[in-house]
Write a structure and sequence with these properties.
The complex is a heterodimer. Chain A is mainly alpha-helical. Chain A contains 14 helices and no strands. Helices cover about 40% and strands about 25% of the residues of chain B. Chain B has ten helices and twelve strands. Classes of the chains: A mainly alpha, B alpha/beta. The complex binds adenosine-5'-triphosphate and magnesium ion (MG). Chain B: This is Amino acid/amide ABC transporter ATP-binding protein 1, HAAT family.
Chain lengths: ~325, ~270
C-alpha cells in the first residue's frame, strides 16, 4: 500500500476516536434540548466541573479550602487521604445529581414557559457561575487526572500493522478506551430510553409537555433526571478529555466542538449527535492531513464550523431531523 | 332522584353510584377575566355528565380545574369524599383522573401503541434501580401493561394502526388514540373535552358508541364537553349548562331542554 493511503487510514482512525468525544459532549446538549427545549450553554463547563470535582475528591482536597482558610484563618491543606477512582466517580456523580436538582429547583422551575432565549441566557449565567464555583471549590490550578485508564501507544496494533503494511499505526490506548466507554454509554442510554418507564416518560416529555402531564408524568422529575444524565455524560467526557490533556479551563471549550456537531446532526437527534461527531472528528483530521499543508495548517480550528455551515445551507434540519415546511 | 345520596338504576339498567367529584363554589380568574363564576355541581360514579355552553362559556376551563391544569382562586374540589388540596396535573392524573384535550395532545413522534403505553406511566411502581436489578418484576409489569394496552386497542378497534406514528394519522383517529391513552390508565374519572369536534357524522356515531361502551362495559365515570346537542341528549345522564362563566342549568337532558334560560342563552343561539 502507498504510504499516503496508510497515513490517511491512520488519520481516519484517530479522527473517529476524537469524534466519539465530540459526540459525547453533543449528546449532553441533545438530551436536555429534547426534554426541555433548553439549549444548555453550560454543558462544557459541566464537563470541566465534573472533572475538577473528580480530581478534587480523588486527591482528598477539602472543598472551598481557600475560602475556609481565608474566612476562619485556618490552614487546611486537604483531608490527607486519597479516594479510589471508582468511589470518587460515584461521589462525583452524586455531586452532579445534586447540581441537576439545584438547577431545576432554584432556577429553571421559575422560568417554565419563558421564551427559549431567556432560558438560554439563564444557562449562560449558569455556565459562568459553575466555572467560578469550580474554581472556588477546587482551586484554579491545572490538574492531572489519572483514573487508571490505559494510556500510550497500543503496541499490538502498532506491531500488527507494521507486519502487514510495513508501517505501524500509532493509536493511543486512551482513545481506544474512550471509544469503547462512549459506545457502551450510548448503548446504555438508548436502552434506558427505549426499555424503561422513566425512559418512556422522558421521550413523552420531549414530545409534548401537556400530554405528558395528563398521563401523570412530573415534568420536574424528568428535568432533574435529564440534567443528571447530562451531568453523567459530562463526567464521562470530562474524564476522557481530562485524562488526555489535563483538567483546566480549556476543557470547557470542548462544548465549542459540540456546536458544529449539533448543526450537523440536528439538535434533537441522538443518532445525529453520534454520526455528526464522527463525521466532524474524521473530517477535521483528514482535512488537516490532506489540505492543511497546502494552506499553512491550523485548519482544525475552523474546519468543523465551515463544514457545519455548508451543511446548514443544504440541510438546515440536520442529518436526521425532519424537514420543516412552514404552513402558509 | 338526582338529589338523593343513594345510588339508583337508570332506564337502561346502569347503576349510578355516590358522588365521586363535588365542585363547590369554583371561581377562576385570568387577570380581569372571570372564566368561571362561583359554580357548583357534582359528578356521580358511573354516570355520563355533560358540560355544554356556547363558545367561551368556560367549559374547558372547568375541565382544566378538575384535572389540575388550572387552580381556581376560590372554591373547593372534593374528590372521592375528601377535599382535594391544590394539585399539579400529574398528581391529579396519578389520583385516577384521565383526560383528553380539545386540541388533541398526543406524542406525535411515537407510534399509536407507544402513545397508549404512556397511559400506564402513572403506575410507576418499579423504580429505576429496581428495573435494572430486578428485571423480572419490571418485565412482568411491562407485559401486564402491554396486555391492558392491547385490550383497549381491541376495544376501540385501532389494531390496524398500532405501529403507525401518530403524526401520520387523520384527525378522527387521533381523537380515538387519545381516548385510548386516557382509558388504559383505568381512570376513576374520565374527562373528554369535545371528543367529537371536527368529525363527520359517521365518525361521531362511532365515537358516541365507544363512549357509551366505555361507560357501560368498563364502568368508567365520564365528564364530557360537547357542542352537538343531539349527541349530548343521547349520551348523558345529566347536563351542566354554562354561559359566560355562570352555571345556568343543571339536570337531566329533558329538564335542561325545558329550562327557559338555557333555551334563551344557548339553544336559542344554536337554533337561530
Ligand atoms: N389560559 C388562559 N389564559 C387567559 N384566558 C383564558 C385562558 N383559558 C381560557 N381563558 C378565557 O376563559 C374564557 C373561557 O374559555 P374556555 O376555553 O374555558 O371556554 P370554552 O367554553 O371551552 O369555549 P370553547 O367552546 O370555544 O372551547 C374565555 O374568555 C377564554 O378566553
Ligand atoms: Mg373549550
Amino acid at each position: 500500500m502507498p504510504d499516503q493511503l496508510l497515513f490517511a487510514i491512520e488519520v481516519t482512525l484517530n479522527g473517529l476516536m476524537a469524534g466519539v468525544l465530540y459526540a459525547l459532549v453533543a449528546l449532553g446538549f441533545v438530551l436536555i434540548f429534547k426534554a426541555s427545549g433548553i439549549f444548555n450553554y453550560a454543558q462544557g463547563v459541566m464537563a470541566l466541573f465534573a472533572a475538577l470535582t473528580l480530581v478534587g475528591i480523588m486527591d482528598g482536597q477539602v472543598p472551598f479550602e481557600h475560602l475556609i482558610n481565608a474566612v476562619f484563618g485556618t490552614d487546611i491543606h486537604g483531608f490527607g487521604w486519597e479516594v479510589p477512582a471508582l468511589l470518587a466517580i460515584l461521589l462525583t456523580m452524586v455531586v452532579m445529581i445534586a447540581f441537576a436538582w439545584a438547577v431545576n429547583w432554584i432556577v429553571l422551575r421559575h422560568l417554565v414557559g419563558q421564551e427559549p432565549i431567556i432560558l438560554f441566557m439563564a444557562t449562560i449565567g449558569l455556565a459562568y457561575f459553575l466555572e467560578g464555583l469550580g474554581d472556588m471549590m477546587w482551586g484554579a490550578d491545572i490538574k492531572t487526572l489519572d483514573v487508571g485508564l490505559p494510556q500510550g501507544i497500543n503496541t499490538t496494533i502498532d506491531e500488527a500493522t507494521f507486519n502487514m503494511f510495513g508501517y505501524g499505526f500509532f493509536i493511543d490506548n486512551l482513545d481506544i478506551t474512550a471509544t469503547i466507554i462512549a459506545a457502551v454509554l450510548v448503548a446504555v442510554l438508548v436502552a434506558f430510553s427505549q426499555y424503561t418507564k422513566q425512559g418512556r416518560a422522558l421521550r413523552a416529555v420531549a414530545d409534548d409537555h401537556q400530554a405528558a402531564l395528563s398521563v401523570g408524568i412530573s415534568l420536574n422529575f424528568i428535568w432533574v433526571l435529564t440534567w443528571s444524565i447530562a451531568g453523567f455524560v459530562a463526567l464521562v467526557a470530562g474524564i476522557m478529555w481530562g485524562a488526555k490533556s489535563g483538567v483546566q479551563f480549556s476543557l470547557s471549550l470542548i462544548a465549542l466542538k459540540a456546536l458544529p456537531v449539533l448543526m450537523l446532526g440536528g439538535f434533537t437527534s441522538i443518532p445525529g449527535a453520534i454520526v455528526g461527531g464522527l463525521i466532524i472528528g474524521v473530517g477535521e483530521k483528514l482535512f488537516e492531513f490532506l489540505v492543511g499543508p497546502l494552506v499553512g495548517g491550523a485548519t482544525e480550528n475552523w474546519f468543523a464550523y465551515v463544514l457545519a455551515l455548508i451543511f446548514l445551507v443544504f440541510r438546515p434540519q440536520g442529518l436526521f431531523g425532519e424537514r420543516i415546511i412552514e404552513r402558509v | 332522584m338526582k338529589d338523593t345520596a343513594e345510588s339508583y338504576v337508570t332506564e337502561d339498567g346502569r347503576t349510578i353510584g355516590e358522588v365521586i367529584l363535588d365542585l363547590r363554589g369554583i371561581t377562576l380568574r385570568f387577570g380581569g377575566v372571570e372564566a368561571i363564576k362561583n359554580i357548583s355541581f357534582d359528578i356521580r360514579k358511573g354516570e355520563i355528565r355533560a358540560i355544554i355552553g356556547p363558545n367561551g362559556a368556560g367549559k374547558s376551563s372547568m375541565l382544566n380545574v378538575i384535572s389540575g391544569f388550572y387552580n381556581p382562586q376560590e372554591g373547593e374540589v372534593w374528590f372521592r369524599g375528601e377535599r382535594r388540596p391544590p394539585m399539579k396535573p400529574y398528581q391529579v392524573a396519578r389520583a385516577g383522573v384521565a383526560r383528553t384535550f380539545q386540541n388533541i395532545a398526543l406524542f406525535e413522534g411515537m407510534t399509536v401503541l407507544d402513545n397508549i403505553m404512556t397511559g400506564r406511566l402513572n403506575d410507576m411502581s418499579a423504580g429505576l434501580l429496581a428495573q435494572a436489578i430486578w428485571k423480572g418484576k419490571a418485565e412482568r409489569e411491562e407485559i401486564e401493561n402491554r396486555e391492558r394496552a392491547e385490550r383497549i386497542i381491541d376495544f376501540l378497534e385501532i389494531q390496524h394502526i398500532r405501529k403507525t406514528p401518530v403524526g401520520r394519522l387523520p384527525y378522527g383517529l387521533k381523537k380515538r388514540v387519545e381516548l385510548a391513552r386516557a382509558l388504559v390508565a383505568e381512570p376513576d374519572l374520565l374527562l373528554l373535552d369535545e371528543p367529537m369536534a371536527g368529525m363527520n357524522v359517521e365518525e361521531k356515531e362511532d365515537m358516541s358508541r365507544y363512549i357509551l361502551d366505555v361507560n357501560d362495559e368498563l364502568g368508567t365515570t365520564i365528564a364530557l364537553i360537547e357542542h352537538d346537542m343531539g349527541v349530548v341528549m343521547d349520551l348523558s345522564d345529566r347536563v351542566v349548562v354554562m354561559d359566560y362563566g355562570r352555571k345556568i342549568g343543571d339536570g337531566t337532558p329533558d329538564e335542561v331542554r325545558g329550562n327557559q334560560e338555557v333555551i334563551d342563552a344557548y339553544l336559542g343561539v344554536a337554533h337561530d
